[in-house]
Amino acid sequence: MNKELKKVNKNALNPNVSVDCVIFGFDLEKLTVLLIDRCRNKRDKGIKLALPGNLIYTNEHLDQAAIRVLDELTGLKNIYLEQVGAFGNPDRISKDSDREWLKSIRAEPEASVITVAYFSLIKMPDYLPQASSFAKTAGWASVSEINELAFDHFEILQAAKEKLKQKIKIQPIGFNLLPEKFTLSQLHRLYESILEKPLDKRNFRRKIQKLEIITSLKEKQRGVPHKPSQLFEFKEVRYQELTQNGFDNFGF
Amino acid sequence: MNKELKKVNKNALNPNVSVDCVIFGFDLEKLTVLLIDRCRNKRDKGIKLALPGNLIYTNEHLDQAAIRVLDELTGLKNIYLEQVGAFGNPDRISKDSDREWLKSIRAEPEASVITVAYFSLIKMPDYLPQASSFAKTAGWASVSEINELAFDHFEILQAAKEKLKQKIKIQPIGFNLLPEKFTLSQLHRLYESILEKPLDKRNFRRKIQKLEIITSLKEKQRGVPHKPSQLFEFKEVRYQELTQNGFDNFGF
DNA sequence: CCAAAAGTGTTGAAGTTACACCCATGC
DNA sequence: GCATGGGTGTAACTTCAACACTTTTGG
Lengths: 252, 252
What we know:
Two copies of one chain form a homodimer.
Chain A: H1 2-10, E1 13-26, E2 31-37, E3 49-50, E4 53-57, H2 62-74, E5 80-87, H3 96-105, E6 114-121, E7 137-142, H4 153-168, H5 184-195, H6 201-211, E8 214-220, E9 230-234, H7 236-245
Parallel strand pairs in A: 1-6
Antiparallel strand pairs in A: 1-2, 1-4, 2-3, 2-7, 5-6, 8-9
The first copy, chain A, binds a DNA duplex through helix 6.
């Protein structure tokens, strides 16, 4: 695996194909996404925020490229990753501010490049800002407050949200966004944030518990100004099972 | 639209990106797929069957490229088309027979190319074989009998089947595979072929009828050696409605 | 003692599954 | 008249949606 990576990195860039990553997080209140701010000085105009991404290497597997981008930006490995799809509208680099920026970072800034988008789920506290070759800074933004992004990244974000929405109805991947120990209310809010609609508290709890995917710990919340909540962790075995097979009937 | 196409065709090829199309049909018995046979003479060895596909043009929208490939092969326009995803395993052109073939049709046969797969649904009788620049012959194959294809096309076919399976549970796109006038049994067999499992006849009929997506014609089947079946057509308006919104609860 | 979120059951409606027999036609 | 697929209803069960009050803690 290490050997392979080394070999890959010696290869040339493929000037026509990039990957972009929609990295979702959850701050226990709402869904967030990791964006890079490409503003190099205060006078830069245009849209500043973009999804992390980069050209792929010749002979690099697309999935590998996404893993690499993720690793370069966050230092994280083994995280949940899924392809959203390919985006190939030739207008995607038509904004002036986007072209300017490309000139500063790419050898062939005018090449027409299609991009393959991925979304990934990480536990927010695991992310520690990392020196990155392609952006000065990266930071979390609340998904629901984003109105525009560079290139076609807003469109990609919408597609990733939609994919996540569909996926979470079928597989219990939401746990990748939560800490090891979590409360049912946190899980509840997570589902509401992703599905963008309210879910009945009692019905939600019942449904989750019937899946037998979580075990209650002996531990409780401490220091909260209200009745402390039971803490849970999810059952690894059952998680694998449901992640592979999915459930047919999870009609949120 | 015509002007745009002309402009596109003047552009150069993007040597690193192709599209491949999984064109599904239904022969009223089972699901089929349109494959090209690249065997130029009897002595060619290796796997002969492949999905139709081709490189895209610089500045050509991916979706446009898929529409173009489809049109070149079948002469059909305005057909149901959906992206399956991007496939970028560098090993995808590693088979010797595949490389040989590429040498005969591509300017840069060794270029590493990622491909974006689409699936589309057509009414089998609409397809009339067409002279095509990239294959002598094309023909229908029964999906369930396919064991191997050129490149990574078998993997792509599996992904397309899976996507279709998921999609048909949520949107009534199956009608694109049927003639204008069809029987409930034909629709029933179609769903069974796609989902690859038996569905109870009575329950299936009830479920479909409740959707109010079909209207029964005054006409009946003729010349069949058994009780003639009622013919139906689907309601365009309601179809559009369900195709856009989907249905949440269609738990086959 | 007040504010805040945790936790808990029941009921009526809707949907799902399983299942067997008669019917209309061509040959 | 027989082989073939078309067409139909019901009952048991499961799932879903809606809904309100008590509990425990910190301040």
